[in-house]
């Protein structure tokens, strides 16, 4: 044995459990000697044969992992697909939701609309990093402990019926998301940066400020949930019946409170009504409320019917 083989054996033994080092050293040296002897018997130079043998055996730590039955991947094939699906599902919804909520709170509760967007983006990125780290850590622990997830075995019955044609286009999804974000941003904006000013030069909120203690946070939460539905719809490539049901519930959750507030004259800021005298004349305020209710009802009905028709077309 030369120092080259000794160095290879020593490098291998450093990465194996101490109780097995003597056994592995004997076995490894014997294997190397046999392989070198086989090459030198055919006339190859001993030094060259040794170098080629050790090169073929590969990295010492990789060889040590085989001796110790140790995995060299963070997450192996047993858990990888589950980890991937779980991580994608969380990253598709949670960071965006947290970012929007933090931004809304920053703009409304803390009264700082300027830094709201930056705070929301930062919170979303931090949430994504935390999710990726902890989910990966959990699956790495499962990998190392050989914990069974008791998942059902895959069968051919799980194969999809056929390629699913995309019915939801990226442009439509982007437009819907943009509209929802604008509506969500409007809620704090109209309170803090309204274009309507009073006689004293102060800004007048469009909606009743008292609603921030009741309905406006609820409406903001509905808008955030609607964002999640748009993302889920795009990922599903089409309307599904569960998505139709959730979308209809969210439409009603937004429309019903707004209609109720309009009909009871509790949506608009009383100072706004007082600022514009024509709203107080005759039945103008009632007319505005009635027209708004009709528009909201038509939009809600159209959205629900449209989603039902698209879902039926794909399930026909």
Short summary:
This protein has 316 residues and is mainly alpha-helical. The chain has helices at 3-13, 21-40, 46-57, 60-68, 77-108, 116-145, 170-192, 215-236, 241-263, 270-275, 277-280, 284-315.
Notes on the protein architecture:
The protein is mainly alpha-helical and 316 residues long. The chain is built from twelve helices and no strands. Helix 1 crosses helix 4. The mean pLDDT is 83.
Strand and helix order: HHHHHHHHHHHH
Mean pLDDT across all amino acids: 83
Give the beta-strand count. Answer: 0
Strand content: under 5%
Percent helix range: over 70%
Described by the principal axes of the CA atoms, the overall outline is elongated
Radius of gyration: 33 Å
Low-confidence stretches: none
Give the biggest beta sheet: none
Can you count the helices? 12
Helix/strand-derived category reads mainly alpha
Topology:
Elements: H1 3-13, H2 21-40, H3 46-57, H4 60-68, H5 77-108, H6 116-145, H7 170-192, H8 215-236, H9 241-263, H10 270-275, H11 277-280, H12 284-315
Helix pairs in contact: 1-2, 1-4, 2-3, 5-6, 5-7, 5-8, 7-8, 8-9, 9-12
What features would you highlight for this structure?
mainly alpha; 12 helices; elongated
